[in-house]
Design goal:
The complex is a heterodimer of chains A (about 400) and B (about 240). Chain A is an alpha+beta fold and about 400 residues long. Helices cover about 55% and strands about 15% of the residues of chain A. The chains are: A alpha+beta (about 400), B alpha/beta (about 240).
Chain lengths: ~400, ~240
């Protein structure tokens, strides 16, 4: 028998027992769909994180006060509590040729009240004008503040898009007054929405000039961090080394034990990637278990089918079918079952992934890879769990089989 | 010059061993069957005639003795080689028809052609020819076995046994499940095939009525050959003698 005859034969036999085949296939459908959903969610999350870190700017490095201890990671440092970075530190950084822009930043949460009485708690970022360049921000309305405005301690504010919505709704906020921790600022601009960058959501923040921030709000000259935009990606490592030396010198601490930390986006990216990958693998493995259960269902059904068709196997052998012919027939039947399950599972999995992304507003990424993987797995399940029943069928003694009623 | 026999068995024995108990199904059976003969192998149930049929039809191997098919020793062939012989050299007709229920008449008939790797178009033509030879009414060829009568089912089985153009047809109690009238029709078909196409036909039966329609009758009792006679008064139903 050639391959297509065998496939046709299998489909005939599968349709002969619609309910049983359907229920068995369902096991595979659920397994494959679960794998696809898990992997798609995982890859979606990964893509989103890569995206948001790239939003930071890929040739951007950040200097934080305090030491980031290896293993405890980035989040555990409590960077607000260390106060080792000062504005004067940027003077030594200015000598480093590979740095294009320096953006000292000071972040505090603050209470903001609009004239109409809307009251929100949001992130206040004190920054240099370079901040907008370094972070790739674009203005939606109004303008950024200037160097002069900052030096003259002008109290102006640029609103993140979300903040503008919360405070002013659809009104035009330009020229309006807001009070940040009871200090009055004039709104001169609104940022275009940008989405979260992993640590800071720029849409939910207000940017004001650094000097007024230090004078009126924080009351001291410490910084939260200094962002550096490097001229070229390839110069990142070199710049980190140079900045470490210069800052350590300035702070009078040994280079091996600096009282600050310099972090590149690549590092953050790889850490996140690893976490997500582990998580995806974990979830996919759980989904994989359901696939194994589905496979056992297939084996169960194939064994039942073989038992029911002992007579037929006897007839086929009597008229000249070889062992291999019988083996192939049942193996292909099992593969056709799981392959149908695989196709339906892919459709269901993709549909559910899209539904989840729509309803839960989660990023999903359905790659060709996962679809090919799922089809491959479903065929493999058919082979693995169909092997034994097919072998049993092929080894039946034709005389015994013919006698079977 | 005497033609070589198509079947020659020499001192064939078959012993079934189950634990300590030995059952002798066949004991030192020897005979020859020539091409174009129509032979009945007769004996009561338990006489070993089914075992003999299984051996003649390459479904089983003798415990001792030799089986020469067309002069070739087939007593010790591998399973797959036996399957190939079943496919090409022999056609089976069973008492209980042994059709596959979820396949139509024409699909049942063409099944051996699948295994013989005959291309699709040719399969259809050969199956139709075969059904015609077995005198199966053409308009029922797309029916399922449970939609036709027993006599028709046996014609389907005969057509299936013929479809690969085998050298011998082995029929095991082919009329056993049929009434006399339809039984006669089946015997007529066998005689037609024998007279017209010169097919070698071996019918295993316990009914002397069936045996009387053959040219030669081999008697088996308790696993031994007890008689081998030319049936001078062969009953002829076929009009093609």
């Amino acid at each position: 028998m050639n391959f297509f005859d065998l496939v046709k034969e299998s489909i005939d036999s599968i349709f002969h027992n619609k309910l049983r085949s359907g229920l068995t296939i369902l096991g595979i459908v659920i397994g494959i769909a679960a794998v696809i959903i898990m992997v798609s969610l995982g890859q979606g999350a990964q893509k989103q994180i890569v995206q948001s870190i790239q939003n930071l700017g890929s040739n951007l490095i950040s200097i934080f006060p305090g030491v980031i201890q290896p293993g405890r990671g980035f989040v555990a440092t409590g960077r607000g509590t260390s106060q080792t970075l000062k504005l004067e530190d940027i003077n030594v950084l200015k000598d480093i040729e590979t740095i294009e822009y320096i953006s000292p930043e000071l972040n505090r949460r603050g209470q903001v009240v609009s004239e109409s009485g809307n009251n929100i708690n949001t992130l206040i970022i004190g920054a240099y004008p370079e901040y907008f360049i370094v972070r790739n921000f674009e203005i939606e309305e109004g303008m950024f503040f200037t160097e002069n405005q900052m030096r003259s301690l002008t109290r102006v504010a640029i609103l993140g898009n979300q903040v503008k919505q919360d405070l002013f709704g659809d009104e035009n906020p330009i020229g309006k007054k807001i009070r940040i921790n009871n200090v009055s600022f004039k709104v001169i601009g609104v940022l275009k929405p940008k989405g979260s960058t992993g640590f800071i959501n720029p849409d939910d923040s207000i940017v004001i000039p650094l000097l007024p921030m230090q004078k009126f709000i924080s009351g001291n000259e410490y910084l939260s961090n200094i962002s550096l935009k490097i001229k070229d990606k390839n110069l990142i490592d070199q710049t980190i080394d140079e900045a470490t030396i210069k800052l350590a010198q300035k702070h009078r601490v040994p280079i091996e034990e600096p009282d600050f930390s310099i972090i590149s986006p690549q590092e953050i990216l790889s850490t996140f990637n690893q976490i997500i990958r582990t998580l995806t693998l974990f979830l996919a493995s759980i989904a994989g278990i359901s696939l194994v259960v589905g496979g056992i269902g297939i084996m169960n059904m194939m064994l039942t089918t073989v038992n029911e068709r002992v007579k037929e196997i006897g007839i086929r052998k009597a008229i000249g079918a070889k062992r291999g012919d019988i083996n192939k027939q049942f193996l292909i039947e099992s593969i056709v079952l799981t392959f149908i399950g695989g196709i339906l599972g892919i459709i269901l999995g993709v549909a559910f992934s899209l539904l989840i992304s729509k309803l839960a507003n989660l990023a999903v990424s359905i790659s060709l890879f996962v679809i090919i993987l799922a089809s491959g797995i479903s065929i493999a399940v058919g082979i693995i769990f169909g092997y034994w029943p097919a072998k049993r069928a092929s080894e039946l003694d034709p005389i015994e089989a013919l006698r079977y009623e | 010059m005497k033609e070589d026999p198509v079947i020659k068995i020499e001192n064939v024995s078959k012993i079934y061993q189950s634990g300590e108990v030995e059952t002798i199904a066949l004991k030192d059976v020897s005979f020859e069957i020539n091409r174009g003969e129509m032979v009945a192998i007769m004996g009561p149930s338990g006489s070993g005639k089914s075992t003999l049929m299984h051996i003649l039809g390459f479904l089983d191997k003798p415990t001792s003795g030799r089986y020469l098919f067309n002069g070739q020793d087939v007593s010790n062939l591998e399973d797959d080689q036996l399957a190939l012989l079943r496919l090409k050299k022999v056609g089976f007709v069973f008492q209980s028809f042994n059709l596959i229920w979820r396949k139509t008449v024409i699909e049942n008939v063409s099944l051996p052609l699948f295994y013989a790797k005959v291309p699709k178009e040719k399969r259809l033509i050969l199956s139709q020819e075969s059904l015609k030879k077995a005198a199966f009414p053409e308009k029922f060829i797309n029916y399922y076995p449970n939609q036709i009568s027993g006599g028709m089912m046996q014609r389907v089985a005969i057509a299936r046994s013929l479809v690969n153009d085998p050298e011998i047809i082995l029929a095991d109690e082919p009329t056993g499940n049929l009434d006399t009238k339809t039984g006669d029709k089946v015997l007529e078909t066998f005689q037609d095939l024998n007279f017209q196409n010169g097919k070698t036909i071996i019918i295993i039966t316990h009914e002397s009525y069936v045996a009387e329609h053959c040219q030669r009758i081999i008697h088996i009792r308790d696993g031994e050959l007890v008689g081998d006679e030319i049936n001078k008064s062969q009953k002829i139903i076929s009009n093609n003698k």
